[in-house]
Write the structure tokens for this entry.
Amino acid sequence: MEPIIVIGGGLAGCEAAWQIARRGGEVLLFEMKPQVYSSAHRSPFLAELVCSNSLKSESPENASGVLKEELVRLDSLILKVARETRVPAGESLAVDREIFSRRITRTLEGLEGVKIIREEIQIIPEDRITIIATGPLTSERLSGEIQKLTGSQHLFFYDAISPIITAESTNFGKTFKGSRYGKGGDDYLNCPMDREEYYRFVEALGQAEKIPVKDYEKRYLFEGCLPVEELASRGRDTLAFGPLRPVGLIDPKMKRQPFAVVQLRQENEFATLFNLVGFQTRLKQGEQGRVFRMVPGLEKAEFVRWGSVHRNTFVDSPRIMMPSLQLKKRPDLYFSGQITGVEGYMESTAMGLLAGINAFLRRMGKDPVIPPPTTAIGALVNHIIYSPALPFQPMNINFGLLPPLLERIRGRKKRMLFTKRALGDLEEWKKRSQIY
């Protein structure tokens, strides 16, 4: 029996390989690193995290928390290792990137049934069960092959990543620890700004030199991850009501809420690096240093990674794919991860998990399984397959993707009912599909 081919060693590809192998299947996992690197990747290890080290909230009142709980119940390798390598981040799950990637790599290298091949795939295999999990940074050559195969134009958007600074270069005398409303304790480092400091900063953002972006590309910016300067251009107070909002934070020195706050999140296990939360950017590197050092406490910040812009690629899933994540015109070919049109680390992992299960079921001559849309994973599938939006655009998990509740309630009770229904329906689906 021929092994299932998985192209791409990111979160989705690794999760797909794990799901296949744990069921007794065989996998050939192709990863082009270290022979070829994308514009954003630097590490030779599998499952490299690029945009952020945060995997978002674990709270059951949050849709991202529900998705994580579903992944736990479906034996996700990615989530298991993430929890083993976590660093403090309040209610969020954040990891030490290097330790996380090393452990994923080591696990799959030692897993029976998985063979990792370090080379770039430029031509899609024919007459073989194959999962394409090349992510939003699919190489130009393979992207061209996918475009030929699907017969449709790829869509794309530009996504920016935040800078990382060293802890030792931060002036802690001007900062204070704390999370908004005290949720999560003192896991964030806050740089408070008064009114004058904030408006000077916004003005500098507007005047800073940026990496050119063509006009037609701007409409593809992902609203959930806009560059900080793009937000600032929408109004002087936009940042103060967005990533720099000070609500729920009291500066212990001033005994009051600051006008605005720049938050730093621990980036690694040893707390030697910090990520500027919400500071995705396309400013030129020199301008990043000049403008971001205007933030109180960051006057002498040492940047170990600059923010940058990279091209994200995804397919027109509603028109070319089935709910099982199979290509309509070629059912032995599966897409998984962010290339399907989901956005986010855990969302990508979920699509890898489902693609891996269904590819294995096809290998065994069985019908595919699809989680109900009342679950977080099923809601993501429902979005990428049945989205009426033209053009189709990526989406993070949120309760708005799930079917509405019958009860007319709001707030925490409503969110918890979404959670209860999702997890209950997931368990019923597991029993009915007999995949666990």
